[in-house]
Write a structure and sequence with these properties.
Blueprint (H helix, E strand, L loop, with lengths): L8 E4 L14 E5 L2 H5 L4 H4 L7 E5 L8 H14 L3 E6 L1 H17 L7 E6 L11 E6 L4 E6 L7 E4 L9 H20 L5 H23 L4 H21 L3 H13 L3 H16 L12 H11 L8 H18 L6 H4 L3 H17 L12 H12 L1
Parallel strand pairs: 1-8, 2-3, 2-4, 4-5, 5-8
Antiparallel strand pairs: 6-7
Helix pairs in contact: 3-4, 5-6, 5-7, 5-9, 6-7, 8-9, 8-13, 9-11, 9-14, 10-11, 13-14
């Protein structure tokens, strides 16, 4: 038996932020990053809250939020006696808030449960509707996924106006993360009819709208569609987990500090090839992953005389798409030093196998498999 549920309420469309006008009488702990404060962008959210609530702003969130930062945030929110959490920003801000929510409850189990409103300002992580968060041990250089329904936001507020000013590089990095979520959810060992429907829709939306966002950030129709696609993909993988692409990205990201979506995109072609077993020959019997990738490819008009050829054509299409978005194809092109790569590849491979997202991958990799994927992705 499978239990399918969507606990997060989604506010989307024009004037979504106006829903915050109905929040009253709360002590609101707002978690964000320094840029949101300095740029004045946070005011777009707090202007709807400040007249009828007490606010405390915690803006120390950095990319790949470290455990020390989360501990500091918990102390501030407890001293403030918060009754509601509002996360504003990209995946790092939302993940940090989720972790604060979880560990604050663990530290004080008798305290009331804190509801969380997640307001994403990037279109990529889907963190606003998932029970996933990723936190970092900076000293060890290790990322840890936190996976529990206790961190699910109560409300996801999707307002495309909040991403209208995102620069091209962030737009495509986060957009390609959406694509990774769709691909991995679709071939996950846990995939079901519900996750497939969401992944298929998100997949089509990326190829229809991401190029438009990249070429013209003021294209608000495309911005809105990518913001929704990010949420849709998050709903898909929240049901069925992800896979090796994210397992390696979490491990390599802690070492190389490449933006998460960019790192996923570097790995993506090699991961698809590995999962579909293209190395055994395109005329050989296709495995389940190859059949599913081929089915997904049809949604954007890519076919082939057999599933493996269709997968190869999909990979070629993704490579061209990546190039059109002006993204690096390899670790070397990104600027990772070869000596550093050689020193870290085995540790990354071992960490990737321990990552909880890897457990849902359609093929069960070995350390040697992951090292080979890394080497192929390096140059």
């Amino acid at each position: 038996m499978e239990e399918i549920q969507f606990k997060t309420q989604i506010w989307t469309g024009d004037n979504s932020l106006s829903g915050l006008d109905n929040v009253t009488g709360q002590r609101i702990f707002v978690v964000t990053d320094p840029f949101m404060v300095k740029s004045g962008s946070l005011d777009k959210i707090t202007d709807h809250l400040k007249d009828n609530n007490e606010l405390e702003i915690f803006s120390d969130v950095k990319p790949d939020p470290p455990i020390t930062e989360i501990t500091k945030g918990i102390e501030v929110l407890q001293n403030f006696k918060a009754t509601l959490l509002v996360a504003v920003g990209g995946g790092s801000a939302i993940d940090a808030t989720k972790a604060m929510k979880y560990f604050a409850k663990q530290a004080s189990p008798d305290d009331a449960e804190l509801d969380l409103i997640a307001v994403p300002t990037t279109s990529g992580t889907g963190s606003e509707v998932t029970n996933f968060a990723v936190i970092t041990d900076s000293e060890k250089g290790v990322k840890y996924p936190l996976v529990t329904d206790e961190i699910l936001p109560k409300i996801a507020l999707l307002d495309a106006n909040l991403v209208a000013s995102a620069p091209q590089n962030i737009t495509v990095d986060t957009g390609m993360d959406v694509l990774t979520h769709c691909l991995e959810a679709y071939v996950s060992i846990n995939a079901n009819d519900f996750s497939d429907a969401l992944a298929e829709k998100g997949f089509q939306m990326v190829f229809e709208y991401l190029q438009r966002c990249s070429d013209d950030g003021s294209d608000m129709e495309a911005r809105h569609k990518m913001h929704d696609a990010s949420c849709i993909a998050g709903m898909a993988f929240n049901l069925v987990n992800l896979g090796l692409n994210h397992g390696i990205a979490h491990a390599a990201g802690a070492q190389y500090h490449i933006p998460h979506g960019r790192l996923n995109t570097i790995l993506m072609p090699t991961i698809i090839s590995y999962n579909a077993e293209l190395d055994t020959g395109i005329m050989e019997e296709p495995n389940r992953a190859a059949i599913k990738y081929a089915k997904l490819a049809k949604f954007i008009g890519i076919t082939g005389p057999n599933p493996k050829v269709a997968v190869r054509n999909l990979i070629n299409y993704i490579v061209k798409f990546r190039r059109s978005l002006h993204m690096p194809a390899t670790f070397k092109e990104y600027g990772i030093d070869q000596d550093l790569f050689e020193q870290t590849k085995n540790d990354i491979a071992k960490a990737a196998l321990k990552d909880r997202t890897t457990a849902a991958n359609p093929r069960k990799p070995t350390v040697e498999d992951v090292v080979k994927i890394l080497e192929t992705s390096f140059s």
